[in-house]
Structure formats: C-alpha cells, structure tokens
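Annex B. Sample input.
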Amino acid sequence: MLALLAGGTHDYLTMARPLLRSLEGTLHFSIDVATEPDHLALEGRQVLLVASDHHLQSGQAELLTEFVRRGGGVVVLHGTLAKWVESGEMGELAGWAPTGPAPVTELVVRADPSHTLTQRLGPEMKFTDELYLSEGPPSDASVMLRTSWHFTEQVVAYERVVGSGRFVHIGLGHQASTYEDASFQKLLHRVLLFAAGKEAAAPVGVGLIGYGAIAAAHATAISATSGLRLRGICDLSSERRELAAREWQVPTHSSAEELFDDSDVELVIVGTPPSAHADTVLAALAAGKHVVCEKPFALRVQEVDWMIDSAVSRDRVLTVYQSRRWDPDYVAMRDVVRSGRIGDLFYMESFIGGYSHPCDFWHSHEPVSGGTIYDWGSHYFDWVLQLFPEAVKTVSAVGHKRVWHDVTNSDQVRVDLTFEGGAQATFLQSDIAAAMKPKWYLLGTRGAVVGEWREETVTSRGPSGDLVEERLAPAESPARLKVMRPADDGSSHEEVLVLARRDENAFYRNLADHLAWEEPLAVPPDEARRTVAVMEAASHSIARGGRQVEVDI
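Annex B, continued. Sample output.
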C-alpha cells in the first residue's frame, strides 16, 4: 500500500496526487491518505510518501524510524525533511539536515548515470523550483541528483538503507511544473518501487537475429543504453557473422536456435525480412525470450495476434521498432496537433518518394516485403494513427505498375483512410513521381501544418582536394515545418518551427526502463497491430481494384 501523508499550510500532495493516480496501475499500490503518521497502520513493505510542511509531533520520529527498520519505505519531497529535522529527532532516519529554501529559480540538475534510480534520465534536467541548501549528505547515503549553487555542489536527492527498509529524500516539488515534468515523474515512479523493496535489475543480455543493413544501428544503440548488453549475433551468412564478430566481439551463431540456447541472451531483436517475422518471433517467445521486432510487425493481422497471444501467455515483453516516432519533425508536428493550436484535426495528406529505380534487394519483392505499402507505410501509418486516435472505418487503395517491371513491388500506391468521426487521411508512396508533394499537409479547424521537403547537400573534399557535393535524399533530412493560422483580414499567420535535436536511442532507453521499472512501453504491440491492420486492408483493396474495404481498426 502507498500511504500519503498530507498536512501543514502548503499541501504539496495536491499537486502530486494526479501523478500518483496515473501511476497507480503500474505501481500495484492502493493509496491511503492521513494527516499524521500515527493515523496510518504502517507495516511491511508499505511506502509512506510525504509532501507537506508540517512538523513532526513528539514520538512520531521514533514511529517512522521503527517503521523503516522493519522494512518499510519513507519518501519525502521538497521541504518536508527541513521541517522534520527541526524537531531534532530525525538523525537516525535521515542523517542529514537541509536548510532553506533558496529563491525559486531554474535549477540545472545532474543525475548520476550509474545509479539504478537515475539511469537513462539524461545527464541534465532543468526544473524551476526551490532548493534547500546543506552540505552532505550522510556518508552512508547514495546521491542521485546534484545541482550547483553559488559555486558549491548541492545535493538534490539521495537514498539510504535504514535497517531492513529505505529512506529517500527528493528536494524538489514546490512548483506544479515539477510534477508535470516527465523526468520527475519517472524518478518518483522508480523511487516508490525502490522504497517498497524492488531490487535493482541486472543488465539484460540482447541478441540480434539477422545482421543486415540496420543491424549495426541496433547494436550501436544497445551498446549505448545502460541496462542493456549486446551478448550475441545470429546470421545465416558466414561473411556477415565474421564482420559482426570483428565489430562487436560477441559470440556469433549460424542459426536462431543456437542463439536461443545462450542463457546470456534474454531479449532478441528480430531483423529478418518481414515475411519471416512471425515465425522467428514465435520461436523466440517459445524459447522464453523477450522480443523486439523490426517494422513492419508482420504482413497479416492473424500473425500479429499469434505473436501477441504467445507473449501474453508466456509473460514476455513484445514490442516493435517504430523508431521514427522520435523523428524531430514528426515530434514537432505531433506536439502542435496535441496542443490544440490548429484545432481539431480532420484532414491529412502524406507523401514519400521521387523518380528513381527501386533497389533490387528483398525490399522490392512483394512476397518477402509485403509490397510497397509495407515499406514506408509502416512509418507513415504509425504516424497517422498516433495523430488520429479514433477507429479507422474504411480503407481504399490503388497501386500502379507502369515503369519498373524488373521488381514486383508497385511503382506507386495511394491509400485513403476515413475515421469514425469523419476525418480523412491519405498516404502516397511513389517511385515515379517527377514532382514532389509535401511530406505532410494537415488541416485543423483553426489552422494547418505543412511539412516541406528540404533539398540539402553534404560538401567534402575529394582525394585530390577538389570539392565534392553529395545531394541527400529527401527522407534523409527532417521536413521544414510551417504552422499556418488564419488572420482577421483573411490572410494567414505563418510560423516556421525550430526542431529539437533527435532524442537518440530513445526507443531502447524506454525498453530498458520498462524491463527494469515496469514503465509503459513506448510502442505497445496493440498499437503496431493497428498499423498492420491498415496495411493489410489496403492490400485487399488493391487486389479488388481499389474497392473500399469496411473495417473497424
């Protein structure tokens, strides 16, 4: 049970309670509230969370100390500890006496990347909050967060073991914006589990199945993510196995079965061609492994359902590598839509392509790849379905085979979706488009967003010192995003968005957080299932000459 202790003139739990309610399902805690420690039946692995400015009464410090010694957890936020130590009876439990507060200001807070509670939070976070000052903390404490103040190093958060229990102090939480910060929410979630007795998770061993074009990027991201360790690579090709062994110094295997037999490998990344995804994922799950599947998840919804059912029945993690959810241009567009700045979204067009010969690898062979729809469509429909949460009601699609007859994929496909509320979305991918359409064209009831392709070049010097210019493919640069909003005189206000830097390795950091702390998956398999369902319905429509397919996706 999670017990909340409120009281005093400033009830910080008023701000914290919505966050705690949102975490309740993940924490597996029921919540009880009281105004004094002795109003709660504190016992066992219960966690007491305190966020208020009340003083402890006589005997309450001993009550809390004994509760922790028996195995309970106490987590105190913001100025709680400063008020408590004024009684002079909290030395054994807290071992530290902060003073203050300093004025509210922006604080640059640094997380210890090696501490189990602050791994993957990022090296620096910014909070506008109060800071309680003091030297310390106690020598037996483990510091999680620090900040600088007047050229001194200040402790923001620490934890320590007392008897069989745990005490945690987080000196933030005066401002509502702190509780709304994603990093603070993650930290509080982890701290509550830690205080309840959850042990630090050991790094998870990861194996790659298939060492093709994208595998090195997976290996690089895994190696850069704390909590994950690359333990093995499997590929049918001896040349690729030799290359993998040289690049990563891990065991290599000629079959998936060999990789599954390696007890150091607890999670596998399935990077086989799409037509083989389902069989490989099911075999990995049957072997007791967690699984990340490359996109597209599968070619048929039935295959997806088999995989999801198998993962659920075996209590294994299953997710899909929808890595472009973190593309800076998409993130900026998504944030505009979700903010309500352009009103209710009701229409969207999206495009990818140009005029160029398709590759001759399996990507261009429909029986293996699933067809043109399953290529960029795996990303574009994932984007669309994140922006339009309503159910898809109809799907229609048309494919063209007009120029590139040496490959089996369509030269061009267009897919049209209608949603339950009447909104529409269109996706066009073409290898025979001599003129480019915008990447995205969105209309809302109070504005619009246009994503324009950029023509960028990379310049360098050749072997003889001459200038070399390499033109990037449009998809290799983020789009230039414009937000258009109507003006009173009938014209439009135009704002060009400044894009944030890519959140590198965000998919794998989230996966490690999920495995270690049960934090929600960024890409639950049910969401990837919707994308496959749309693509499969579009394939059926093409096979029927573009006839509309009724669905409920």
